[in-house]
Amino acid sequence: xxxxxxxxxxxxxxxxxxxxxxxxxxxxxxxxxxxxxxxxxxxxxxxxxxxxxxxxxxxxxxxxxxxxxxxxxxxxxxxxxxxxxxxxxxxxxxxxxxxxxxxxxxxxxxxxxxxxxxxxxxxxxxxxxxxxxxxxxxxxxxxxxxxxxxxxxxxxxxxxxxxxxxxxxxxxxxxxxxxxxxxxxxxxxxxxxxxxxxxxxxxxxxxxxxxxxxxxxxxxxxxxxxxxxxxxxxxxxxxxxxxxxxxxxxxxxxxxxxxxxxxxxxxxxxxxxxxxxxxxxxxxxxxxxxxxxxxxxxxxxxxxxxxxxxxxxxxxxxxxxxxxxxxxxxxxxxxxxxxxxxxxxxxxxxxxxxxxxxxxxxxxxxxxxxxxxxxxxxxxxxxxxxxxxxxxxxxxxxxxxxxxxxxxxxxxxxxxxxxxxxxxxxxxxxxxxxxxxxxxxxxxxxxxxxxxxxxxxxxxxxxxxxxxxxxxxxxxxxxxxxxxxxxxxxxxxxxxxxxxxxxxxxxxxxxxxxxxxxxxxxxxxxxxxxxxxxxxxxxxxxxxxxxxxxxxxxxxxxxxxxxxxxxxxxxxxxxxxxxx
Length: 580
Hints:
The protein has 580 residues and is α+β, with helices and mostly antiparallel strands. The chain has three domains: 148 residues, Acyl-CoA dehydrogenase/oxidase, N-terminal domain (Butyryl-Coa Dehydrogenase, subunit A, domain 1), CATH 1.10.540.10; 125 residues, Butyryl-CoA Dehydrogenase, subunit A, domain 2, CATH 2.40.110; 153 residues. Helix content is 58%, strand content 11%. It contains 18 helices and twelve strands. Strands 3, 4, 5, 6, 7, 8, 9 and 10 form an eight-stranded mixed beta sheet that branches. A hairpin with a 5-residue loop joins strand 4 and strand 5. It is globular, with a radius of gyration of 24 Å.
């Protein structure tokens, strides 16, 4: 399906909303300016538009195929992966000492948005590999890093994350996969993992599985989990005792093989301990937190693709326009305009929110503790808000197509089906809400949250100094949402240990309130940047649209953030007392 990477929109956020000048200097390239970043994005856009996007709809119709333990990916995927690796795209963000380019996460997110928007089923392979590399780089021994990182960074090998088991979905305390010392420094892994993305495929000669398992003397629960590297092929070329026993038949992302992996049918799969014993969950969170931000980015990407398709259809589909006897494109209908504005505003808000988190990830890598605290706070916001948003936007795309949206040939339905996994994997959005409230707020007394809420003050002050009724509306609604969310946050801060059921009951509406307001703050920054550029003679049509979509977000979505905040104050008793 056609997809045009939105480079102008990306560069606007990078340059003027988030700010490339805030990035640390690159060791070899120095300060990255807009021209340097655009020179990276443009060839990436060609691969996304010309190679990956044309494979997307065909892969939906003919997904990956499993037979006798072997997975054959969708037609064209293997060749596209080779082009992707030959272009150096797999190594963009990784350390130069292991063959990476060392570029910032902020730039990498813009590049990765293109892969996910063009073909999310394809993009899942490098996404999971990225997290595996992060975990090995952060926690493995020098020997394991030397063995695996260079080939995983080049793309010669790929990595996976093996957490989930049939009896242990999100409850990792229930993991039963076992690891037994072999007496030679290695371990033998026994067990089954499910829902393993690209656990088997034909892209590469080796697949490096990161597996959670329990040692014989491990404590019970999550404190007794260790992390192991389990390669498909061993150093001597022998096949390890790990097999794909089948792939799932899914609602969407048909081109991505979702595998059941069996370890240890023939004496035990050889595994190598990563870091210290019983510290596996902590290590795996390195991988999961990386993936959660990337899944939020997937939400932005697939929402952008759905918006592009709906906009194209609305401009071409001719129908009688209400109150006008002349026929014309449905893009002239007021309600279609409303839906298109809703799609555009949410996509732009999600992109700015996600890129802001990526910038602070870069700052945190330089040792900035406050930046790390902000990334930790923003991760559940980005993951949950952007993925819920993607489902809403993709559904609106189907609606704009009308009956044709319900017909698979148009392609609108694929975005809807593909997007539906996003609020589920890498920790459901309910888990993200619990993580936000219990780990990121109540654990430290809300220090990071209070600091984040203070950021609104400067934006609101700038809005009040801006001229025009657009900014009056944005200022009023952002101020109201900020006040309402602050009240909800104060309510959470008053809770005692005996009130944790209350906190759990309102964690989802609180996340929606905070993330909706946070996205509104980013849209306000977008409007302010657009106004400043207009005064300097910038692209009038493009920049005026930024102000319009920012006002629309303020009018429609900031009141929803306030409504979610109100439910934090009122709905807990109803939820806790309910029985089923």
